[in-house]
Write a structure and sequence with these properties.
This protein has helices spanning 2-18, 25-33, 56-62, 65-73, and strands at residues 35-40, 45-50, 91-95, 101-104, 108-109, 116-118, 127-132, 139-144, 150-155, 165-168, 173-177. By secondary structure, the protein is α+β, with helices and mostly antiparallel strands. A hairpin with a 5-residue loop joins strand 3 and strand 4.
Length: 178
């Protein structure tokens, strides 16, 4: 797998140099790893964006204390207190930290859990999953693929067509009406 990744990065370097961009190997690795492909609801297609890399202090200054606690320290808001738990307007839910599109209102459902629930993300590339071993169990934590902000967890008890329930903290989201 290491060999494949290395060859892919070298190939990208060759393509960049063909377009007249002089990039050293060290800079190439930095530039490639700082960009990701995500879905844009506004453009209706995939786009390349830079990852949102901020220090803990920069995040602390940019976010409210509750949003910082949930998104940067993997906290959870209290059930049935979230702004978007019962919101069913048409639109897109974005990451509160970096503005990346995460969930579409068409994929939202009332799970009865007290958290905003969706059966699928707007695109799988827009989120990331990691194992969460807290609370004496193993869960799949959901985070923004661009800024790594904690969003919530995904469970296998959702409705069709996916059977998944993305249980998301409202404080991690910003809603943009369609």
């Amino acid at each position: 797998m290491y060999r494949r990744t290395f060859l892919k990065r070298i190939s990208i370097g060759v393509v960049l140099s063909c377009y007249g961009s002089f990039v050293t190997v060290g800079n190439l690795f930095a530039k490639v790893s700082d960009q990701i492909k995500v879905w844009s609801a506004v453009k209706g297609s995939y786009i390349i964006v830079n990852k949102a890399n901020k220090s803990e202090q920069e995040w602390r200054e940019a976010l409210t204390p509750e949003t910082f606690h949930v998104t940067r320290k993997h906290g959870t808001e209290h059930a049935f207190t979230g702004e978007y738990d019962k919101n069913y307007e048409a639109g897109v839910y974005q990451c509160i930290c970096c503005g990346q599109d995460l969930f579409h209102s068409d994929h939202k459902f009332d799970s009865g859990t007290g958290w905003s629930s969706y059966y699928q993300p707007i695109a799988i590339e827009n989120i990331g999953l990691t194992k969460d071993r807290s609370w004496l169990t193993v869960r799949n934590e959901v985070h923004c693929s661009r800024c790594k902000g904690h969003l919530g967890h995904v469970f296998e008890d959702g409705p069709k067509p996916t059977g998944l329930r993305y249980c998301i903290n409202s404080v991690s989201l910003k809603f943009v009406k369609a």
